[in-house]
Write a structure and sequence with these properties.
Elements (H helix, E strand, L loop, with lengths): L7 H10 L4 E3 L11 E4 L2 E4 L8 H11 L13 H13 L7 H25 L22 H8 L3 H8 L30
Parallel strand pairs: 1-3
Antiparallel strand pairs: 2-3
Helix pairs in contact: 1-2, 2-4, 4-6
Amino acid sequence: MKYHPEALDPIVGFLRDIGFTVKYGAGAQGGFLPGVNIAAGVLHVDPETLVGPGDLLHEAGHMAILPLRLHAQLGRDLEADMRAAIAAEAGPGLPADPRLSVPLQQGEMMAQAWSYAAALHLGVPLECIFFPGSYHVDAYEGPHPMQRWLEAGTHHGLGGLAHVGMTGFTGVFALMGDNGLPPFPQMSRWVQA
């Protein structure tokens, strides 16, 4: 692991505590990101090929923003699997239930914001998520641009997480309303019910 290997154990412990199954070993091969893969709702991780443990948090974030009942249908191709699972449950088109429609529209941004909130909650270095090359950004000075957007309250994942009731509205998204929950980065729940 190239970036912050010390963060892996707390991250795995946290994911297991909130209900995810995490397994070490060869099942991590062939995933979307090096060293992490999802098969039938199980997170697989290989510390030897994982670039940063924040990648595991990010992939877990994609699962966390979906209702728990859909997790077993998720695999390596999260986007296609998510769309298929939601369509099988709600039919074609955009579902009326925001817990299904918002992740379809903002899943990537929501997973970014979720992993940021989780890293803050755990007290692990944000650089385990935001490192050179993460989110297709190789060169930057100071904090990673994604981190700056989250901290400025302008990152779209904040609104998505608030719309599905995982956190409260904050930043520019506070103008959209008040759902009565503590504002991001505080999470009222880590996994959709």
